[in-house]
Amino acid sequence: MxxxxxxxxxxxxxxxxxxxxxxxxxxxxxxxxxxxFFDSIEIGRWFTIFFGVSSVSILYKxxxxxxKNNWSSFFGSIIFGLSFTFWRxxxxxxxxxxxxxxxALFILYSVKYFQExxxxxxxxxxxxxxxxxxxxxxxxxxxPGFLFLLYHSKNWNLIVKSISIFTILFLSLFIIPxxxxxxxxxxxxxxxxxxxxFKNFPKDILKSIFYLIFNFWHFTIFGIFGIFxxxxxxxELTLFLLINxxxxxxxxxxxxxxxxxxxxxPANFIxxxxxxxxxxxxxxxxxxxxxxxxxxxxxxxxxMSYHFSMEIEKGYxxxxxxxxxxxxxxxxxxxxxxNVGILETTIKNSETPEPLDWMKKSxxxxxxxxxxNGENLNDLENK
Length: 383
Hints:
Elements: H1 2-9, H2 22-34, H3 40-67, H4 70-81, H5 84-89, H6 96-116, H7 119-132, H8 143-153, H9 156-171, H10 175-179, H11 201-216, H12 220-233, H13 235-254, H14 265-282, H15 285-292, H16 298-311, H17 313-321, H18 328-332, H19 342-347, H20 357-372, H21 377-381
């Protein structure tokens, strides 16, 4: 809700703090300034959808660059598009599909550099990774993969240029805090009550494996096979993908806040590449095409999981506890259909078992701005 309120205010966000998401927030605000007659919620919604679709199309290009096969590229793109985390985040106004767009470009140009050895692709990778930090600081977890890419180059002149591009973009994050006399730590440090507890590591690992399976279902095993198959064919490319995926997966696993499933998204993106390559390599063309149609059952798996969970006592209790935001459906079905949003909750002043003060504050601010523009509460409730 905070992003929507920022769009409605129309004031550019002059901050590079962890929560500011400078590039995402200001892109939305800029669109609103150019097209003031567009509704703020619709701007956020279609912006998210556009970059979600763009990310899927880039994934197609990445897989095609590796396999030179249209069907495997199409299949890999669809299976990622139907994964729970990505599907859910294309339906809400959040930063994650916009962020995966930059990560997708970074991986695309890196893969092209591995394949074609053209300097421009390494320079583009450096620029994309650097500018992505202005969108989400979590992308520093891709630096090890970037360093591996530079090592693979062995062209010192090109390496210096690439490092310079990335370093300039990275250091420029501190310009705004410097002039505002803020601590440089705000670029990295999140205000959170959560502390990483290694005693919970086994539980967190199991949780992360569940997330992976819930995103890719029966194709998960093929993703694991795909790692080894791609290792045999493209050792350095596979190592590059793993070096990018593992830090992200590790961070998302350890930083086990309530919504940490979204932090796995870059790793899921890479895992979809392994799934596609595995099926392309293991099965003859006709069998691969036939088996790949089973992705159409993924929405059915979500529905079956929801109904199965509702039959369990703990699942039913959880559903009752979370009814204020749609119950178990909100957590187990990626599509959002007739769910209770924060606007409706705030307008009706509904009580919630969990504190949602920061969300309600943004919602109230948005409501007041819309009322000032002549809109009534009934129209707002139906948004």
